[in-house]
# Entry
Amino acid sequence: MRIAVFQSDIEWCNEDANLSKVEHVLRQVSGVADILLLPEMFTTGFCVEADSLDENIGGKTKETLLTWSKEYDVAISGSFIAFDAGRYFNRAFFVTPEGEFVSYDKRHLFSIGAEGKLFSRGEKRVIVPFRGWNICLQICYDLRFPVFSRCVNNEYDLLLYFANWPKSRINAWNILLPARAVENLSYVCGVNRVGCDGYGHQQGGASAVYSPKGEKLLQLGSQEEFQIVELNLEYLRQFREKFPAWKDADEFEIS
# Structure
């Protein structure tokens, strides 16, 4: 499976401009990649002032993604602001060319940044089946909580993190992504934004893909760019059979 990783410099509170960037990349990866991965809050950044929210939570993004996924024959995944049943969510999505739309609401809200004051916490972990792969969706701060990402009985093959991870803490990002790959015997991809957000925070970039052995398969820098990497499901299955550490894992339930 070929995945395109796009770390964008998100235009602050500008849904149209950010969607335009995505379509530009989609034109280039159509016929080349199976999935296009985008950062957390890819249409707006963390633009959560009350007067701007109403402009950015409508159905436009969802409908546009469904249309483009079919048109360009590429699955698309990232996160955006969602309004559902009277509550706001930081919502990850996975859109397929067949018209499926699967979502996951961020469970671990960044209390230091008061994320929980506006957004409601998600309760369920989500794993998406796609073309023979099982893909787990997680968002940014979730990366710091390994229990929630634990791959029990090889239930997923690829773990995705969509992020707005600041440059000041990028060392943790670079450590935790390969750690999640090694401990879960899974491919792991973290796609982060770049640039400076509306609050003056520099974002770290360093989007990366790791093998189940923790080997770096792709590493982006600190500029807006996209790259494509190919993942091998048979290699993953053979490695899990040869080194079945998952059989010795502790049993538990996430409540």
Observations:
- The first strand starts at residue 2 and ends at 7.
- Residues 107 and 122 are 4 Å apart (CA to CA).
- The helical segments are 15-29, 50-56, 60-72, 115-118, 170-184, 233-242.
